[in-house]
Design brief:
Blueprint lengths: L1 E3 L22 E4 L2 E7 L2 E2 L6 H4 L4 E5 L2 E7 L3 E3 L2 E5 L2 E3 L3 E6 L2 E6 L2 E3 L3 E4 L4 E6 L20 E2 L8 H5 L65 E2 L14
Parallel strand pairs: 1-3, 2-5, 3-6, 4-7, 5-8, 6-9, 7-10, 8-11, 9-12, 10-13, 11-14
Antiparallel strand pairs: 15-16
Length: 244
């Protein structure tokens, strides 16, 4: 997929580009270019919807190029997310783990992201071979260390070349180039220290709201391999958008 909107309107003028809500389950979003918008991907639309969503919202996001997204790359409540082989370029916020969600984050590169992996209330993360760039992981150690399907990790050093210009709309006809991907892969940012924090950081805002991310600030930063082969994953699909 190639998903984008704009950042000229207020952040609540549009909702997320690829939101998965109300018991959405076993969904893969892969090989996509997700760019130029305030809100990327919301998994679980409300803090008050735990009774419906708990035990569901199992999502894989891999081999994606995220660029110039302000928040929610993704933001996940209640469920489980496996995020790997992806490049986060000029995204203000990264992966937001909320309301007891668990994430497995592997083989990703964050470039210019101040909060690449964080929580505003509760959640857990297992991370392996990630380049955090300007930020770090501040999510407590989680429990999601394995998944029930086979997949191939590129290694963080190979991610940028594998996804930039190759994720999203890359079809061409009669020699014409398709898509809106960057023409060349930039160099990887320097690696900083990794590791899970011993305890969850304090919330930066209200976590009781239905969909809004308390950590959102006033303006976004200016500046899309192989699908996971799960037994239970479905074809890429965005659920009905819900006002967050």
């Amino acid at each position: 997929m190639d998903l984008s909107a704009d950042t000229t309107h207020d952040k609540d003028f549009y909702d997320g580009l690829c939101d998965l809500t109300r018991q959405a389950d076993f969904i893969t979003v892969s090989n996509s270019y997700i760019h130029d918008h305030w809100k990327g991907s919301l998994i679980g639309h409300s803090d008050s919807n735990g009774a419906e969503d708990t035990g569901h919202l199992r999502v894989t996001q891999n081999n994606n190029h995220w660029k110039n997204i302000h928040s929610r790359t993704p933001s996940i409540r209640f469920g489980q997310a496996h995020v790997y082989n992806s490049y986060f370029e000029a995204t203000t916020d990264g992966i937001n783990v909320r309301q007891g969600a668990e994430v497995l984050v592997e083989s990703n590169v964050f470039d210019g992201t101040t909060k690449p992996l964080f929580t505003v209330d509760t959640g857990g993360a297992v991370e392996k071979d990630n380049v955090w760039g300007a930020g770090t992981n501040t999510v407590p150690a989680g429990t999601l260390s394995t998944v029930e399907y086979q997949y191939d990790l590129l290694g963080s050093g190979a991610v940028i070349a594998a996804v930039v210009g190759k994720s999203g709309n890359t079809l061409s006809f009669d020699g014409g180039a398709g898509g809106d991907a960057a023409p060349a892969a930039p160099a990887a940012p320097s690696r900083t220290a990794t590791g899970a924090a011993s305890s969850a950081p304090s919330a930066t805002g209200s976590s009781g709201g239905s969909g809004g991310d308390a950590e959102e600030s006033s303006a976004p930063t200016a500046t899309a391999s192989k699908k996971s082969s799960g037994k239970k994953t479905t074809s890429t699909k965005a659920a009905k958008k819900t006002k967050a």
